Amino acid sequence: MIVGKKMSKDYYQRLEISKKANQEEIKQSYRKLAKQYHPDANSNDDNAVEQFKQITEAYEILKDPQKRATYDQFGSTKRSSFRPGSAGSDGVFDHMMSGFFRSQFHQNPNEHIGVEVLISLEEAAVGLSKTIPIPREIDCTKFYGSGQESGTGVTVCSFCNGLGMTQVQSGVVTIQRACRVCGGLGKTIDQPCSLCGGLTKILKRENIEISIPAGVKSGSKLRIQGKGQNDDPNFAPGDLIVVIKIPDHPVFERSGNNLRRQAEISCIDAMLGTTIDITTIYNKKVKLTVPAGTQSMSVLRLNGLGIPVLNTNRKGDMFVQIQIDIPHELTAKQKELLVQFKTELKKT
Questions:
Q1: Positive or negative, the Cα torsion across 174, 60, 49, 112?
Q2: What gap in Å lies between CA 291 and CA 272, rounded to an integer?
Q3: What is the side-by-side order of every strand in the sheet holding 113-118?
Q4: Which of 6, 119, 238, 309 is a plausible cystine mate for 314, CB 3.0–4.6 Å?
């Protein structure tokens, strides 16, 4: 059981940090205190449970730059003279304000997990189901999750003398920061845990099947609810955010839902016209009619053979840019025929 102590109304004091603490220092201090006062580790200690709630409240404000700035300006008790539950407040209004304060100060501490998934343009065109490994932080259970080996202890950090903070003088300004040796804990572990290295957390990979719809673009984000971190069982788990990445294709160039590719024909076919086979992104061959007199760099259109428009039955188009192949070498007979052709052209 943890010996009870009265929590300060000051959020910085609750988290045992200075008002100049950066986001990493805030996060490290919260994790240390949350582990100390977590209800799972103090199931019979109501005081620890209340202290856990209060440090979580402080963390939710200070980790958000906008909320932190508001708090720094007004303070926890000076922004309004009214507090939920104060004497003389109306019961209904009291209930409404209590709900407001809970929504502001007791937000979900379970973080989202972000991963990138690489798929091909062909897969983006048809959609797919894909199993991906998700690295998830879980508590190390070795030696009760203390971060140390069994039979060993902790030592007061000699670099900061157990304060967890060090000071650096810069002219007339004194800068206070988390100790670089103990990470702001004020103590060092004699023999770190062989599983977690003293971090009290280990990575566990979980295979999750995701459904990627046809038509996604590179940079698209998919949200899978409840598959993020679940450090605090008192709150809903965080979400999994999947960012889709699609590399450049060797044949097709994508522009929105349209595709563009090139096709090469001979100069004779360009003059006379022809029909050629074109392979689509769906690995099917279609016929493309090239009109007589087509010029090099001309663009022909094939309707409905592009990428699907997300969540619809429509598709973009495929555009084919014609490249005319000019032979580098000619036989004597070919030259003779071309000279005759040139002569005929002059007559028209």
A1: negative
A2: 8
A3: 113-118, 240-245, 221-224
A4: 309
Q: State the pairing for strand pair 258-266/274-279.
A: unpaired
Helices and strands, counts by H and E, the chain: 8, 15
CA distance 211 to 221: 12
Tell me, what's the pLDDT at 232?
75
Which of 235, 240, 242 lies closest to 60, judged by CA?
235
Whether the predicted pLDDT of 39 surpasses 70 = no
Q: How many residues in total does the chain contain?
A: 348
State which amino acid sits at residue 47.
N
pTM summary value: 0.56
Q: How far apart are the first and last CA of the chain?
A: 105
Asked if 200 and 148 count as a contact pair (C-beta separation under 8 A), the reply is no
Cβ(317)–Cβ(278) below 8 Å: no
The neighbour count for residue 186, using CB atoms within 10 Å, is 19
Q: What is the CATH number of domain 253-347?
A: 2.60.260.20
Q: Name the H helices within 213-331.
A: 267-272
- CATH code that applies to domain 11-105: 1.10.287.110
Torsion of CA 19, 25, 29, 32, to 10 degrees: -170
Looking at CATH, the fold of the domain delimited by 113-153+190-245 is given as: HSP40/DNAj peptide-binding domain (2.60.260)
Q: What percent of the chain has pLDDT over 70?
A: 84
For the chain, how big is the Rg over CA atoms in Å?
Answer: 34
Q: Are 183 and 199 in contact (CB under 8 A)?
A: no
